[in-house]
Amino acid sequence: MHRGCEDCAVRDRAVCAPLDDAELAALSKLGRRRRLRRGESVVFEGDDNAVCANVLSGVLRVNATTPAGREQTVALLYPADFLGRPYARSSTHSVTALTDAELCVFPRTLFERAIGDCSPLENQLLRRTLDDLDRSRHWMMLLGRKSAGAKVASLLVDMAERLAPGGGAFDLPLTRGEMADVLGLNIETVSRQLTRLARDGVILLRGRRGIALLDSHALGERAEAA
Amino acid sequence: MHRGCEDCAVRDRAVCAPLDDAELAALSKLGRRRRLRRGESVVFEGDDNAVCANVLSGVLRVNATTPAGREQTVALLYPADFLGRPYARSSTHSVTALTDAELCVFPRTLFERAIGDCSPLENQLLRRTLDDLDRSRHWMMLLGRKSAGAKVASLLVDMAERLAPGGGAFDLPLTRGEMADVLGLNIETVSRQLTRLARDGVILLRGRRGIALLDSHALGERAEAA
DNA sequence: AACCGAGTTTGATCACGGTCAAAGCGCGCC
DNA sequence: GGCGCGCTTTGACCGTGATCAAACTCGGTT
C-alpha cells in the first residue's frame, strides 16, 4: 500500500473515504505526495491539465483571469478537498498554494481510469462535484448581490468554519489582496471593512494575519445584510 | 419503452446520450413528460427536493435568494440540460420556466437508484456536473470583475450561442428584470446598456424581446473589456 | 538593533451603477 | 380598434466602492 494511506490525515474525509482496502491499495499506487511552498502553483490556466489531487494540508486557491487581466478567485481549497478537472484536456483555472501545503497527486488520465474502474470513487466524486457546484452558486449570490461589508463578513464566517470550527482565534490564510480577489473587491475596500469590523468590536485583528471573532453572532448578521 | 424516447428531441445530447437501448428502456420507465407555462416553478428553494429532469424545450432559470430577499440567477437551462440536485434532501435553489417549456421528469430517489445501477449514466452526469461547475466559475468571474457593459454583452453572446448558433436574430427569453437578476445589476442599468449597444450599431432591438446581433465581433470585444 | 520591503492602512477624490421618479410604449384584452 | 396594464426607457441625483496617492507597520534579514 502507498506509504501513508493508513496514516493519511484525511483518509475518512477525502474522496477516497468510501473505498475499501483493496480499492485504496489500487488507487494509492497511482498517487504520490507533493509538498508546495506558499505561492507555488499546481495547475496553470490554459496549460495541459495533467493532474488531480487531494489536499492533505494547507489552503489553496483556484483562480480565473479576466480577458482584461484581473484575477478572480473562484474557490478556496482546504484539507480533504479534491482538486483538478477530470475529462478536460486543458484547464480553465490556475491553482496556487496560499500557505505551505501538502497534496496527494494523481496523473489525470490514470485517475480518470480509476474512476471508471472503481464505482465508489466515481460516485463519491460525483457527490463532491455536486457539493462544489452548490457552493459555487452560493458564492455567485455573494458576488452579485452583497455589499462590500457583507462580502467581507461572509468570507470571515466561511473561513472560521473551516479553520477554527470551535470558534475563536485563527490565522488568515489570505492577504488582504487575496481576500479582494475572492470577493470581487479591491484591496483598500477589504482593509476598510476589516478596520470597521474591528472598530465595532466584532473582530479583533492581531498583526497581519491574526484574527479573533469576538461576536460571531453580529458577524453572521452582517454577512446576511443586504 | 417510454412513449417518446425514440423521438426525443434531445436523445443524443441529454444526459441519456451514452445509454444503450436496454438502459434507456429501464430509465424511461421512471420518467414522464411535463409541460410548464412561462413562470411556473419545478423546484422551490428549501422545498422537498423531489425531482430531477432533462430539459426538452424552453429556457429555465435556477435562482438563489439572498437573506435580504434579492434574487440572483445562478444558471440558465436550455434544451438537453440536466436539472436537479441528486443526493440532497432539500434544494438550495428554485427553478422556474422563463418560457413555456417541456421537461422529462424523474423522481429524485428513483433517479439516484438509476445512477447507481447504470454506470454510463453516472459517468455522464459526473461529466456534466464538472462542466456546470466550470460554467458557474466562469460566471463568477463575470459577476466579480466585469463592468455593467461587459456583463450585458457577455450575456448576449452566451444566449446567442445557445439560441441562434448561426448568428443573427433571435428572441430574448428573459425580460430586462430577469437579465438583471442574472448579471447582478438592476433593471435600469440593463436597459441603458442595451440602449447604448443599439445606439452604437452593435445590436438591433425589435420590440421587447426581439434582438439581432449586427456586429458580433464588436459585441465580443465589449464582453471582454474590463 | 537597525534596515528594508512587502503588505496594510488611511485619506481625498472620482465614477459607475443604484435609487427614485416619471414618461413611454408594446401588447394582449375586451 | 381602443383601452389599460406591465414592462421598458429615460432622466436626475446619490452613494458605494474604485482609484490615486502617501504614510505606516509588521516581520524578516543582515
Task: Give an overview of the whole structure.
The structure is a homodimer of 226-residue chains. The first copy, chain A, is an alpha+beta fold and 226 residues long. The first copy, chain A, folds into 2 domains: 5-143, Sandwich (Jelly Rolls); 147-224, Arc Repressor Mutant, subunit A. The first copy, chain A, contains 7 helices and 11 strands. Chain A has helices at residues 21-28, 108-117, 119-145, 148-163, 176-183, 187-199, 216-224; strands at 32-36, 41-43, 51-57, 60-65, 71-77, 82-83, 94-97, 101-107, 169-171, 203-206, 210-213. Chain A has a 4-stranded antiparallel sheet. In chain A, strand 10 and strand 11 (210-213) form a beta hairpin. The radius of gyration of chain A is 19 Å and the shape is globular. Chain A starts with 20 loop residues before the first helix and ends with a helix. The model of chain A has no long low-confidence stretch (mean pLDDT 94). Chains A and B meet through strand 4, strand 5 and helix 3 of A and strand 4, strand 5 and helix 3 of B. Chain B binds a DNA duplex (30 and 30 nucleotides) through residues 147-148, 175-177, 185-189, 191-192, 194-195, 207-208.
> Order of strands across the biggest sheet of chain A?
1-8-3-6
Biggest sheet overview of chain A: 4 strands, antiparallel
Helical percent range of chain A?
40-55%
The rounded Rg of chain A comes to 19 Å
- CATH C-level of the largest domain in chain A: Mainly Beta
- By DSSP, the count of extended strands of chain A is 11
- Unreliably modeled segments of chain A: none
CATH architecture of the largest domain in chain A: Sandwich
| CATH evolutionary superfamily of the largest domain in chain A | Jelly Rolls
The average pLDDT value of chain A, as a whole number, equals: 94
Largest interface: A-B, 45 and 45 residues
Number of domains of chain A: 2
Strand content of chain A: 15-25%
